[in-house]
Amino acid sequence: MFLSEFDTSRLPRRSRLKAWREAATAVWDISQADEQDFSAKVKAWHGHELIFGTIESTSQTTNRTEDWIAQDGFDYYMLQFYNRGFRRILDRFEDRTARGGDLVTLDMTQTVSTMSSSYLSNDLVIPRRKLAPLLVYPDAHGGRVHDARLPLVSLLRSHLAALTEAAPKLTDLQMADLQPATIALVAATLNGVVSEDIAPEVRSSLLLPIRKFVDAHLRSPDLGLPHIAAQFGLSRSTVYRIMKPVGGVSAFILERRLRACRADLRRPELRHKTISEIMLGWGFSNPQSFSSMFRRAFGMSPRAFRQQSAVQKSVAATEIDSNWSRWIKELS
């Protein structure tokens, strides 16, 4: 278990917002904040593969744009319980506001903008590779607000608070034992929220195995409704109803293939491959059509995304502990 404590009160007033921007660049573009009265405090624990703790800050406006996503390449979920103050989430869903113990879930692969008052939050960061396999629909949780009164949300809030309180006394071995239970509780909470918040059909127990099957066969040219129906012994109409909450079979496969291309375009070890080679490897045959679909999905062309991904952000060292920021950058 490792502890990081970041507190701008240790700095001259004129340096506080600058130090926060330099540390928070691991996650956010801080576009607006009160430079005269700004303050922020982070107490974070890094236990096994989880990062958790508390953040206390004055008001600010934050953004994750496609440019930001392309540059940092983060692939994790962040959960935030707002125990004091509020935060507005502005994204492809309607505006939502979290307050009074509500849970905000953020997917670092998705764009989002937020506006907050002064707040105190309890946060948890989980690598996507650990949580996504347990979620019915892993791409449905970016920029969402979940009501504090939901039983599983309340249970998860209590668990995270207890975990944060116990952190100083936990050994690495104990934290390793606690991690699976923590991730399982998060998955149960988010799956429960999806079934109530997105569509009743998501309750179907077949959606998760079908999604996993699609992800495992994305490179197959035969992947489609007939193939999936035959694999699971279902009628095509049944598969269609099961997949309707995620946009239908064709739309879901297209989205997953585009995301796979985006991930490959970001990877330094694949720089030797052309965009066309990557595109063909994931089942796209027409460069113009692929470029148009990629731009519609992610707001920039594949070439621009690859170039932007190669840009390394330069983050100046601060005078105070910002190990929590480094942990987040290195999380995978």
Automatic annotation (TrEMBL):
<keyword id="KW-0805">Transcription regulation</keyword>
<dbReference type="Pfam" id="PF12833">
    <property type="entry name" value="HTH_18"/>
</dbReference>
<feature type="domain" description="HTH araC/xylS-type">
    <location>
        <begin position="208"/>
        <end position="308"/>
    </location>
</feature>
<protein>
    <submittedName>
        <fullName>Helix-turn-helix domain-containing protein</fullName>
    </submittedName>
</protein>
<keyword id="KW-0238">DNA-binding</keyword>
<dbReference type="InterPro" id="IPR020449">
    <property type="entry name" value="Tscrpt_reg_AraC-type_HTH"/>
</dbReference>
<keyword id="KW-0804">Transcription</keyword>
<dbReference type="InterPro" id="IPR018060">
    <property type="entry name" value="HTH_AraC"/>
</dbReference>
<dbReference type="InterPro" id="IPR009057">
    <property type="entry name" value="Homeodomain-like_sf"/>
</dbReference>
<dbReference type="InterPro" id="IPR050204">
    <property type="entry name" value="AraC_XylS_family_regulators"/>
</dbReference>
